[in-house]
Known about the structure:
Blueprint: E1 10-16, H1 24-34, E2 39-45, H2 51-60, E3 65-68, E4 82-83, H3 85-90, E5 95-99, E6 102-106, H4 108-118, E7 127-131, H5 135-146, E8 151-156, H6 159-172, E9 176-181, E10 194-197, E11 223-226, H7 235-242, E12 246-248, H8 250-266, H9 272-283
Parallel strand pairs: 1-2, 1-3, 4-6, 7-8, 7-10, 8-9, 10-11, 11-12
Antiparallel strand pairs: 3-5, 5-6
Helix pairs in contact: 1-9, 4-5, 4-8, 8-9
The structure holds NADPH dihydro-nicotinamide-adenine-dinucleotide phosphate.
NADPH dihydro-nicotinamide-adenine-dinucleotide phosphate is lined by residues 109, 112, 132-137, 156-158, 161, 199-201, 203, 227-229, 250, 253-254, 257.
Amino acid sequence: MAVARSFLSTLVGSFSQGAADNPTVAMEEAAFRHHGLDVRYINCEVAPEDLGDAVRGARAMGWVGFNCSMPHKVAVIEHLDGLGESAAIMGAVNCAVRQGDTFIGENTDGKGFLTSLVSVVDPAGKRVVMFGAGGAARAIAVELALAKVAAITVVNRGRERGQTLVDLLNQRTEAKADLVVWEGDYAVPEGTDIVVNATSIGLYPDLDARLALDISTLRPGMVVADVIANPPKPRLIRDAEARGCQAITGRGMLVNQGVIGIKYWTGVDVDPDVMQAELARIFDT
Length: 285
Ligand code: NDP
């Protein structure tokens, strides 16, 4: 007897500009192949003026969800039907999830970071120093606040962006936030538990770029995390390990946000090691 077959795959994808540089499709499809999932991830170059049509297209074609990257993370919200808790506070979405006939916006950047963090430390009650106040910083800070960290010091070069994030945290979350305008080498205060680089300093090809940070103030036992996914061990991570800190890489954050997105879309827990291996094959060989 012939076995019933379907030639209709489940569709997900990504809308961004600069899509050719985004490795997410390779990472996600490696996971789909490994788990035998009949899901395709379509990486799409979408200009800002076409974003509404792209979302309507995804809806019309029955996509179960999509990622949004630069420059659509805020603009996409007006095309969605609702927001998850942290995405609503951040005002930014990087992952839309179909629920019935609706698309709900989530933000998996901060959640991916948190997954890495909780594997080494319970954030509740901890004191955090975070460099940067852009999109990644915003996502991480809000998730840290929802995970009940006690305090977040935002260290940012530009006062205005830093203050906007600090005000958001103080007004919309229980965490106590303050701003340090970044001038000269920053000394991490004693009593800090977690240090996060959420700036783009250290991103490939600027392999030896250094944060303006007095690394003698990184103390053994501190957790030091970096958002930089390429190279796998940016300078801050190398310095932190040499100082006896527990280091968390941006590569792990990138993989984890992918794992969380696939769980939202398919309900399947995929193996992060498969995605790590695919990124290593692409970037590190
Ligand atoms: P944004 O442009 O929104 O923000 C960049 C931040 O970095 C700002 O706070 C900016 O400060 C600061 N910054 C940049 N260059 C310098 C410098 N030379 N000195 C001091 N501060 C600097 O970018 P995103 O937040 O979207 O992305 C930041 C990084 O996070 C990127 O490298 C991106 O690849 C990475 N990322 C990693 C993810 C992962 O899964 N691993 C997920 C998302 C992002 P100012 O406000 O003063 O300009």
